Amino acid sequence: MEPGLTVNGRTRDLGDVGGHVTLLDWLRSTGLTGSKEGCAEGECGACAVLVNRPDADDRSRWTALNACLVPAASFDGQEVITAEGFGTPETLHPVQKEMADRGGSQCGYCTPGFICSIAGEYYRPDRTPIAQADQGAGAEPSRDATAAGRPDTNGQGDSANAIDHEHGPNGFDLHALSGNLCRCTGYRPIRDAAYALGVPDEGDPLWARREQRSPAPFATKITSTYGAFVRPLQVSEALDLLANNPGAQLLAGSTDWGVELNLRHARAALTIAVDRLDALRGLEIGDSVIEIGAALTLSEIERGLAGRVPILAELFPQFASRLIRNGATLGGNLGTGSPIGDAAPALLALDASVILASRSGEREVALADYFTGYRQTRKRPDELIKSIRVPRPIAPISAFHKIAKRRFDDISSVAIAFALRLADGTVEQVRIGLGGVAALPLRAFATEDALTGQPWTQQTVREAADVLGAEGTPLSDHRASAAYRAATLRTSLLKFFAANAPSALQEV
Ligand SMILES: Cc1cc2nc3c(=O)[nH]c(=O)nc-3n(C[C@H](O)[C@H](O)[C@H](O)COP(=O)(O)OP(=O)(O)OC[C@H]3O[C@@H](n4cnc5c(N)ncnc54)[C@H](O)[C@@H]3O)c2cc1C
Ligand code: FES
Ligand code: FES
Prior knowledge:
The chain is an alpha+beta fold. It contains 18 helices and 20 strands.
């Protein structure tokens, strides 16, 4: 069968698109020009589309993604909705109608992307109107439960009805829009539109679609002038391909690789998609370890862990945007070997290890030993990351501090993760992971030594903060100076102590 996908309910041939053609470029080449290119690097969301992805209980979930980052070839056999696929000018979709009624669009460049991100949240299965949630678990679900979010008549705007700064009374999580930029309307009318949405009608076909499975991944092989794209269905097949082609480009969420493609014009002779391999998509929560599949997206991990690993629960909302987290994986974050990836410091503090798989078997490498230099790791070219193993019990006191220029959708200047266990007011065990202060992610071993066995007091912490400030070999670059990075290390430990001082802990 020729490679193809379903867009807005209509099947279209993919043709011989190589791994370098993004879904956005391909969509626009078919005449579907609603999706726009603003930045081509995942920052603006003008390209956002909805993709039908697997969800629990054999259901599916409409997931918003940046079409500018992902190869079209990876959607062989899949279902995609673009802004053109919602309503018609005569019968607007509820998301379009609220945006139009509330003045959520001016020049319109960002609007198709906003429509898709808002629709992803509109159809989120567990989006629960606050009024309904307040009535308790036994309350009858109401399709009209968002009346609290209807146009305000008191002149204070819908924000007067909002539950907090980031959630609407209809349960709308504003973080769903953290990857969408608008440069002329202003965000208030867009937020008002989002907070005014009700629950989808029973007859809404996109709502009903979620009751069925998402399309299974297709075994895909497309060859073009610029190289081949292959989606194996078995991990053994992927490992054979990797063994025979050690220079091949592995592809998961493509949120890093997509930037390489677009901005640095990288081309791979062979791209191997591993994002839908079952063997890389498990989440096992055992008594002694939690094993996280390398190809689960961050959004999937966040849902699956449901706060069981507090340090990750703190990290996820600070990682890029919802659009990026819907595609990005831990395998990809560790696969780049980047010294400023956010997962490494958190996983170092958790004492995690990676499971590396090759045709000759599997091996476990402690993350503390995994990074060997700037973007260098112990992973061999014939290996892929299969999973990340986090030992239990998880340290009871932890924090993830991300220092970046913006609160959301920004890369860390410095990232620091703490995991602490106290016994009778003394530091029994502490692990500190650092990113952005050396050519590779680090454990702050000297600081850990300075703290371990000492009383958890301000004096101990002040002395240890000086040690932490001297860990790493920070550089000055466009994000931060070396001196600033060193200073943030120091103050980060002081902040961690302030939040977890003995008096505060006793209160807990
Ligand atoms: C706008 C934007 C914001 C971002 N913000 C952040 C941020 O806040 N924090 C942060 O840490 N990162 C951030 N990133 C970087 C990126 O999103 C992450 O590194 C992400 O985790 C990469 O995962 P992926 O699945 O998309 O990787 P991909 O792009 O698919 O792959 C990245 C690399 O990892 C390799 N790889 C992928 N899977 C595996 C595997 N299973 N085994 C071995 N190698 C593998 C690939 O071969 C490739 O070289 C951002 C990126 C963008 C575009
Ligand atoms: S074009 Fe800006 S995020 Fe895709
Ligand atoms: S309406 Fe112009 S950029 Fe948003």
